[in-house]
Amino acid sequence: MSDQLPVVLTSKDFALLEAISQGHGEPFAGATEIIRRKLGAATLVFPNDVPANVVTLNSRVRFRAGDAQPEERTLIGEPSEEDHGLTLSLGSPRGLALIGAAVGQAIEVQRKDGSTEQLHIEAVTFQPAQHRFKPALKIVSSQQMEPPATPASHTSARPFQRGFDDDPGPSAA
């Protein structure tokens, strides 16, 4: 995996990678070193600020390995969520290579047999951060603003008086 490619991680993805690197054993040989390099090179962003073309956890990404046909997978964190042919675990060499990478990047990935392959990221077809509810902001100038509403008048006949206690006490319960 190249150290010169930009890596953009959400705070959640960063924390997950950190937990994997400090967990019980490596998901595959060399994973801890790859994670350390990735974390060291990462630009950290809030989930709402991640660019739409960056692969994050639970993103659906289309990539191609070498000259093979493109594959489309959802990047998942837990192997228990895995659905063969539809998902890609973050604990796999490909999953670890893809997280934080952007469309257009080519990433070198070491296979389990020791050989390497190039993954070319073609598209991020779904990214959870881009589908969160974001309230639309409306710019209002001072000329367009309505005057503040007048507070409702107090209907009590007695104005507030210091020392007046209107609490009926426990007998009212």
Characterise this structure.
It is a single chain. The protein has 173 residues and is an alpha/beta fold. The chain has one domain (7-131): Roll (Chitinase A, domain 3). Helix content is 17%, strand content 23%. It has a 5-stranded mixed sheet. α1 packs antiparallel against α2 (31-41). The longest helix has 12 residues, at 11-22. The termini are far apart. The mean pLDDT is 82.
CATH architecture: Roll
DSSP helical segment count: 3
What is the terminal separation in angstroms? 71 Å
Can you identify the CATH superfamily? Transcription elongation factor, GreA/GreB, C-terminal domain
> What value does the Rg take, in angstroms?
27 Å
Q: What are the key terms here?
A:
single chain; 173 residues; 3 helices; elongated; five-stranded mixed sheet; alpha/beta; two-stranded parallel ribbon; 7 strands
Which helices and strands, and how do they pair?
Blueprint: E1 7-10, H1 11-22, H2 31-41, E2 42-45, E3 60-65, E4 71-76, E5 87-89, H3 93-98, E6 106-110, E7 116-126
Helix pairs in contact: 1-2
Short description:
The chain has 173 residues and is an alpha/beta fold.
